[in-house]
Design brief:
By secondary structure, the protein is of the alpha+beta class. The protein is built from 11 helices and 19 strands. The protein has 3 domains: 253 residues, no CATH class; 83 residues, Alpha-Beta Plaits; 63 residues. It has a 4-stranded mixed beta sheet with strand order 6-1-12-11. It has a 4-stranded antiparallel beta sheet with strand order 14-15-13-16, covered by helices on one side.
């Protein structure tokens, strides 16, 4: 199963995600009951009414959180809110994975504020996030995710719309997205994008929940059979779009999917030795793979096309290496979604010819069939040590690995 979170148009807030999860099929009564039980851990605040009702946003029917609260405090320490959330999830006897998720969400909020204002985390005070609705969002979403079994599913997020213009809050007015949003997304693999909404579309609470829920971001929906859809409405109304968060749950094949960057450049004036060295250097910079193809370009010139597969974290270092090592005047960059057969990295100890070796190998399973591939460096070292050919060594190692795996 796979869940796609689609905040491309209207962004995301805690109440939008919570509402969309209920609309997707989470038990509304269980969520409301859990939130009400958690109220006692949040001092100076009372939930007068909580419910979910259908509404329409620019013609789209969606579920909306109805929350009426009575509060007498306008500022709380981050540690107070964290304790209230932890006490709530423990009191509700949620599984460890769910409790850890809820704690990581509030930790992200506290850490972002700590870094922005240059104060220790235990000194962080919340203003906008000090309301009990922060607890309602985080605890309610945790209950809903657990109820739907989503902690064990693949979750993909589309690029997150953050809006535009400026935002005014307790620290004054600043350009949107505000510093907290940027800080939360900084250490994730999620993408953000602005639009002409003229105000904030993604809230800090929504951002921290999303960043702790998934690190997989894709520009397009993956191939999937749609099983259910949830629509969660925000509180605001906009002229040009529906203020709705969309969740799509469905079944996909057994392959994992992710997105990678493809770097390409043509070089026609460097030697084979330089190209060989280039491959080694690029792999050392963290590339997933490197290929070099021979071809003919304009005016019959022979050329070498260097193609590199990498991710966002290594792209800058690899582009620098391509330019410095080859002298190329340009590098083409494209993005590609791909399917990946699920695999695990394994390691076993075995004996050959009276000598002991540690052998690493990748093990993959697809449609009930299992295969494995021995790490080439280990294969080469063992081959040299026992003075046998690579082919013979591989055969011996495969027999030993198959024997141990069958036990």
């Amino acid at each position: 199963m796979v869940l796609v979170i689609d905040p491309q148009i209207a962004g995301i807030s805690g109440d939008m995600l919570l509402s969309s999860l209920i609309d997707l099929g989470a038990d509304k009564n269980k969520v409301i009951e859990g939130i009400k039980k958690s109220e006692k851990f949040f001092s100076d605040s009372t939930i007068k009414n909580i419910d979910f009702q259908k509404t329409k946003k620019r013609g789209i029917e969606a579920l909306q959180l109805i929350l009426e609260i009575d509060e007498h405090s306008h500022e709380k320490k981050g540690s107070e809110i964290k304790k209230a959330i932890n006490d709530s999830t423990q009191s509700l006897e949620l599984p460890e994975k769910a409790r850890a998720f809820a704690e990581s969400c509030i930790n992200s909020l506290i850490t972002s504020e700590s870094k922005i204002h240059g104060v220790p985390e235990d000194s962080v005070h919340f203003h906008e996030a000090s309301s009990i609705d922060t607890l309602v969002d985080i605890v309610g979403i945790t209950i809903a995710l657990e109820d739907l079994g989503l902690f064990d599913e693949k979750i993909i997020c589309m690029p997150v719309s953050v809006g535009g213009g400026s935002v005014t809050f307790s620290h004054g007015t600043m350009s949107n997205p505000a510093s907290a949003i940027l800080e939360i997304f900084k250490n994730s693999y999620l993408k953000i994008k602005g639009n002409d909404a003229g105000e904030e579309l993604t809230t800090p609470t929504g951002a921290c929940i999303l960043a702790n829920l998934t690190n997989t971001c894709m520009d397009y929906y993956p191939p999937m059979k749609i099983n259910s859809i949830g629509y969660g409405a925000g509180q605001k109304d906009f002229e040009n779009f529906s203020n709705v968060l969309k969740l799509v749950r469905g079944s996909a094949n057994n392959l994992e999917n992710d997105s990678v960057k493809i770097l390409e450049t043509n070089v026609d004036d460097i030697s084979g030795e330089i190209l060989g060295n280039l491959i080694e250097k690029i792999m050392q910079k963290g590339a997933r793979d490197v290929s070099i193809y021979h071809g003919i370009t304009k005016k019959g010139r022979p050329t070498n096309l260097v193609s590199v597969i990498c991710d966002d974290q290594t792209i800058d270092a690899i582009v620098d290496t391509l330019v410095l090592e080859t002298g190329t005047l340009g590098v083409r960059i494209s993005e590609s979604n791909r399917f990946i057969v699920p695999r695990t990295n394994e390691k076993i100890s075995l004996s050959l010819d009276g000598k002991s070796f540690d052998v690493r190998y990748k093990k993959s399973t697809f449609k009930g069939k299992t295969d494995f591939k021995i790490e080439f460096d280990d294969l080469k070292d063992i081959s040299n040590t026992i003075d046998k050919s690579l082919k013979e060594t591989e055969s011996l190692l495969r027999k030993e690995i198959e024997k141990q795996d069958s036990k």
